[in-house]
Amino acid sequence: MPAPVNHLEERTRDANELLEGMMPSAITLAMMIRHRKMATWLRTEFEGYSESTPTPPYRRELPGHIVARSPQYGWIPAPVDDQQKADHGRLDLDDGVKTLEKICLNCKKGNGNRVPLPPAEMADLQSRINLSAELAINVSRDTYSGVLKTVRAAIYLWTQELMAFGIGGEHNSFSAEERSKVASLDNPEHFWRRAMAELDTLPIPDTREVGFFERVFGRTG
């Protein structure tokens, strides 16, 4: 028989396991133990945030570097001052885990991903710095990895608590008594806030870097 809690906890600590691959298992587990709030948060993380769903703080106001497209040199740092960096150099990452992880996997360490500035915001900044070049925010790979690691760590902490309440081991289903025992753990905010605070001390890997052959030929095995 499967051991859904233990196995999920192990997967969160395995650098070869992608977050995208374990999210459906986490959602299924949340539904099995009637953790509706946790299931909703996991689904939103998986699919992405909309205007009607508040973005959690680990995805909000994340720093980037404002860059400009030069005809001669490609993308280069834009001539912006500290106030303009503060006004335009931060963004929310609303995309689902699958999209964020794909970006992160295809970025080499030390590199990033360019996100276009919204047209109105770009026009405003262009007028302020007297520059007609296209502008974008370059978001580092570490920033994407940090969001993914926070989600992964929250799932890890949740499974750790579930096992501490004695519902690890082999399960195809959970009894009403077992579900009642862990009802108080249906609190995703508690776990992602703990993840934010404890991230550097938890045994959670960063998103791995995809090698050249894997990028060209896809995953093997």
Describe the structure.
The chain is an alpha+beta fold and 221 residues long. Helices cover 49% and strands 11% of the residues. It contains ten helices and six strands, in the order H-H-H-E-E-E-H-E-H-E-H-E-H-H-H-H. It has helices at 4-12, 19-32, 36-47, 82-88, 97-105, 119-129, 141-164, 176-181, 188-198, 212-217; strands at residues 62-63, 65-70, 74-77, 90-91, 112-116, 135-140. Strands 3-2-6-5 form a four-stranded antiparallel β-sheet. The protein has a two-stranded antiparallel ribbon with strand order 1-4. Helix 5 packs across helix 7 and helix 7 (141-164) crosses helix 9. The longest helix has 24 residues, at 141-164. It starts with a helix and ends with a helix.
What's the topology here?
Blueprint lengths: L3 H9 L6 H14 L3 H12 L14 E2 L1 E6 L3 E4 L4 H7 L1 E2 L5 H9 L6 E5 L2 H11 L5 E6 H24 L11 H6 L6 H11 L13 H6 L4
Antiparallel strand pairs: 1-4, 2-3, 2-6, 5-6
Helix pairs in contact: 1-2, 1-7, 2-3, 5-7, 7-9
Provide the descriptors you would attach to this structure in a database record.
single chain, 221 residues, alpha+beta, 4-stranded antiparallel β-sheet, two-stranded antiparallel ribbon, 6 strands
Return residue spans where pLDDT drops below 50 for at least 5 consecutive residues. none
Helix content: 40-55%
Provide the residue-averaged pLDDT.
Answer: 91
**Count the strands?**
6
- Rg over CA atoms, rounded to whole Å, is 20 Å
**Strand-residue fraction?**
5-15%
Q: If strands are numbered along the chain, what order do they take across the biggest sheet?
A: 3-2-6-5
User: How would the global form be characterised?
Assistant: elongated
The major sheet is characterized as: 4 strands, antiparallel
Number of helices: 10
Q: What is the terminal separation in angstroms? A: 24 Å
- What structural category arises from helix and sheet content? alpha+beta
Q: In sequence order, what are the helices and strands, one letter per element?
A: HHHEEEHEHEHEHHHH
